[in-house]
Amino acid sequence: MQTSFEIDYVDPVVETIETLCELGFESKGHCYVSERGDCRAAIRPSNGWLYLMNIRTNPRSRSLGQASALLRDICRIADDFRVTVFLEVEAGSDSDMTESQLLDWYWRHGFRGCKSEMIREPQ
């Protein structure tokens, strides 16, 4: 006698993206973007992880905590679904932060790594 059964598997990255969309991220082709106030973040799924493509704040609104709040939301949802987030650290031409300051900022949000790449495992 042969028994068949289905395995209900839901990709945690897909669940993470769906939940972030409920919080205001919108599909923009190959990535998902959220704009809150003067802050913008872009993420995309990549091989079972979330890749944080960029997070930027308009210069006139920096130091108000908008980027930190958005990054905390991304990390909280990734934690909920046990998804690792990774990024490449690069100070933009309009940034008033050095790469060293950016590394420190990401470090405070739980990211670890070297000069150019950082990851944040679920916490």
TrEMBL record:
SUPFAM superfamilies documented for this protein: Acyl-CoA N-acyltransferases (Nat)
Protein name per Swiss-Prot or TrEMBL: N-acetyltransferase domain-containing protein
Species annotation: Neorhodopirellula pilleata
Organism classification: Bacteria, Pseudomonadati, Planctomycetota, Planctomycetia, Pirellulales
